[in-house]
Amino acid sequence: MQDPLNPSLTDEQRLQYLISGISDYAIYMLDPSGRIASWNAGAQSLKGYAPQEILGQHFSHFYTPEDQAGGLPARALAHALAHGKYEAEGWRVRKDGTRFWANVVIDAIHDEQGKLLGYAKVTCDVTQRKQAEDALRESEQRFRLLVQGVTDYAIYMLSPEGVVTNWNVGAERIKGYSHDDIVGSHFSRFYTDEDRGAGLPARALGTAAREGRYEAEGWRQRKDGSRFWAHVIIDAIQGDDGKLLGFAKITRDLTEKKQAQEALEQAQLALFQSQKMESIGQLTGGVAHDFNNLLSVLASGLELLSLSRSGSGSDAKTIDSMRRAIDRGATLTQQLLAFARQQPLQPETRSINRLISGFESVLRRAGHSGIEFAFQLDSQAGSAVVDAARFESALLNLVVNARDAMPEGGTLRLETAQVALAEGEVTGLAAGPYVRVAVADTGTGMAPETLRRAFEPFYTTKETGKGTGLGLSQVYGFIKQSGGEVLIDSAPGAGTTITIYLPAAGTQDREAAHGGSETVLIVEDEPDLLDVASALFISMGYDVATAASGQEAKNVLASRDVDILFTDIVMPEGVNGIELAEYTRAHYPGVKLMLASGYPPPKLGLEGAQLGDYTFVSKPYRLSDLARGLRSAGQGGRGRPEAARVQGG
């Protein structure tokens, strides 16, 4: 066939001219052995060889030394021969030694009889494309490394439906799930049950899809079920056509920051409350003092008026009414002074448990038949320096308030314990040992507004005439004046717990409160012997308390401070002396123990070493026997003193 524009050109010539004129592709022929049989302008431009330099050379000349050593050129021809075509990409070498990334196609050429004539080879320089792909791949790799290296943020992708598609190290650290645990799961599993029930995950994705971004803070849940406060950002990821591809989600754990912020807010609130109560206290104290002065003038004038009058019936009634009004006013000023922490106190070191036990009958009578009392007094609660009468009055106020909160009945629990507070654990109290007294009821509880103002004087939610609003303010003022603190925990329908903290008294405080004099409890069922023993101890400078039985002795131990227990072993009934000693050692470890008997019978189990656990004095005893026994008891009450001899009768 001839070209109509140039009839003298054959098809082969036209093809040769076409191939020769192509400059962007290296197109050349190889003979069956791989030697170069033709060379176009594109090959010269791409590889740098002129035709006379390269024709007859083996095409492996363009391969890198590594590929040549690996036999790649021969494998390429073998593949083309076996399959008709070979296509690959790889590094090739120009004449000047520089390398380029080549896309290579080798086609096997056969004649009509199927004989191999050689190979057609087309090479294209795709270095720029490879560099772009490598740059993109490196960028993606750097991004993956960056995301995976972030440990303070959970960074992961979601499908348009909210399914987790990848997972970084930060997400694993914060949420506790490994990559295999979570990929393929819906992200709503991180939300709390309440938020899932309210449809929050779906709303979050809906907002992000609609507006492009969603940001919020809230509680999230870890794999172990624990919760953390999270700051969450969800960004919608869209393709070039605007189609939603998924979401990028970033979560940060702000629990510590939230706790610090809440602690600061609580501290500021406590400071404000303290300043407010201090201001109210100063105002109240000043008013109370001035009011007391006015009452004194009225009371004195009233006395003079009553002396100067004849005392007719109507005048006498008027004067009596005025006196009662003055008495009520005086009581009111004392209540105000209690809140203002200006009341006169008579502090002494007292066992809190014994104060409560001695006042228990009064507290029970303050309730009503529908209230069940539960006293849980820890034997290790210890002592505090308090005004006993004011402390009892404070307890009574708390019990009355609890009673009024349970008109239909309920449980009133009074507990004591010794606690060691850390610095800042209770606002306003230094670290150290404290006696804790808690009065808890199962009543109506307090609303937040009531709880916030509960200690303010004259603030009450009771009906008119049912309360002055000074009960809790008195308790607050007394405890603060005693160096302690009062806390209220309450919610509507959940009852109220009022907790008192008083600084625990040390041994030196206890000895100072006794004024150097110790109290001995004598337990003896024979009245005459009890009188004699009392006289002997009194003569040695001891304060004496007595009991005629083991049970009566337990009641005395619970109601007052005792330093020494001196008990007969044999009792006619109930608790015997050894049982009383064991009870005292368990519940009042600071009390010294002395046992006495004319003949300790074997059935009490007092033979040998067990009797040696106590200071023992035989009957009949003399003053010197008691003195030596007391010295032994003061050394720890263990072992037999010289005077503690066991006689056979």
Structure description:
By secondary structure, this protein is of the alpha/beta class. The protein has 21 helices and 20 strands. Strands 10-12-13-15-14 form a five-stranded mixed β-sheet. A hairpin with a 5-residue loop joins strand 3 (99-110) and strand 4 (116-125). Helix 11 (255-308) runs antiparallel to helix 12, helix 12 packs across helix 16 and helix 13 (352-365) packs across helix 14 (388-404). The longest helix has 54 residues, at 255-308.
Tell me the overall shape.
Answer: elongated
Number of helices: 21
pLDDT averaged residue by residue: 78
Question: N-to-C terminal Cα separation, in Å?
Answer: 152 Å
The counted number of beta strands is 20
Helix content: 40-55%
Q: State Rg.
A: 49 Å
Question: Topology, please?
Answer:
Elements: H1 11-21, E1 25-30, H2 41-47, H3 51-54, H4 65-69, H5 72-83, E2 85-93, E3 99-110, E4 116-125, H6 127-149, E5 153-158, H7 169-175, H8 179-182, H9 193-197, H10 200-211, E6 213-221, E7 227-238, E8 244-253, H11 255-308, H12 313-339, E9 348-351, H13 352-365, E10 371-377, E11 383-386, H14 388-404, E12 410-421, E13 432-441, H15 448-453, H16 471-481, E14 485-490, E15 496-503, H17 507-514, E16 519-523, H18 527-539, E17 543-547, H19 550-559, E18 564-568, H20 577-587, E19 592-597, E20 615-618, H21 623-634
Parallel strand pairs: 10-12, 16-17, 16-18, 18-19, 19-20
Antiparallel strand pairs: 1-4, 2-3, 3-4, 5-8, 6-7, 7-8, 9-11, 12-13, 13-15, 14-15
Helix pairs in contact: 11-12, 12-16, 13-14, 14-16, 19-20
